[in-house]
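User: For my dataset I need records formatted as: sequence, then structure tokens, nothing else. Please produce one.
Assistant:
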Amino acid sequence: MWAGVAGFCVACGSGTAPETSAPSGSPSASPETEAVASGATPPRAPSLMAGGPRGNTPLPAPTLTTQGCASITTGGPMAADGSSGALGCGSRVTGHTAGGGKRFDTKFYERNQCAPATRDWDGGDERVFRLKLPEGEVHAVVTLDSPCADLSLAAFPWSAASLPTGSETVDRCELNKVDGPKREFVEIVSQGTPAWMVVVEGIAAQEGAFALSVDCYAGLAGYQSPLGVSP
């Protein structure tokens, strides 16, 4: 089923927002490997923290604003498999679509019911990240800040060692496109499906800098036991 449109327009400001830390005394999980993309923050280990988008706590503050667009001109090299890095709970990564791959197109997103073919996903480069979620029931929110270009954010389960070619049919696909260079997010409900692909792609031939944030919550609903980052 095609996802409904959801997202927030970012009121751009200067500087980079600090990361949110878990409250003291929170239990910690095993560290996750974070992407080594341009401007990426050091890896953090997931742990419990309070708050959440549907618990009257806003999405994370933007980690990229229009003032930072000119300073990010590359997304860094791709790995041998074509991915641009790894994401986990608490990841904060910046990059650029230019120099990425061209695996996914309008037909892929339509065939997998990510979105109808009312936009052009055939021209822009894309950056693909492997997202590893904790085992068990997890609700993850992946946020894209793209004030520099009209980009899109998609996520789908994928556990194979090699990246998809773009001709496959996937079991699920999350994509909530907002027109223009605005903030978007997708929500992932994972129940024993910890391995996902996250794709940032330009609409038509657009390329630009972007920032990704991943926030995780224990359980499938209610955002009562969020998983965040430890200091």
